[in-house]
Amino acid sequence: PNAVAAAARQVPPRSEWHVEPAKVFDNLYYVGSREDSAWAVTTSEGIILVDTTVEYAVESQVAEGLRSFGLDPAQIKYAVVSHAHGDRYFGAKYLQDNFDTRIILSEADWDVIDRSNEPEELKPRKDMVATDGMRLTLGDTTLTLYITPGHTPGTISTLVPLKDGNESH
User: Is residue 85 very low, low, confident or very high in pLDDT (cuts 50, 70, 90)?
Assistant: First the structure.
């Protein structure tokens, strides 16, 4: 029944969700859709995503979006999922299955996903658990994750060091 539920999901026409990817800073790219975000942070050792968009857009928006900048989606080492709503995590399973991406959520939001009635085919396998103040380092870049409950029980706010030429933000 879950496969049927996943297959029965209404996928809106591409024209309603597709947007061109954008390079925002030297190390930050928007690869989400019109309504569902995904941000790629490039590092010296690979890519960290913040959010994964939805299952029907992840290949087009994230994988192809990265390729359009000459980046390899197989280099997505981590995906930090900001909160346990489908528009942020439905693309995570695709990333796990196709690129061995490590998926990070807070314990509270892993529990939300586990208890949700969403089709199992849309749920990532439980992987890494974010803790308050956790530092995620990949190559020359360290993101800091804070647990900021409210929108969901375990929402994560992420500080990302940005590069713009010789300036850091």
Answer: confident
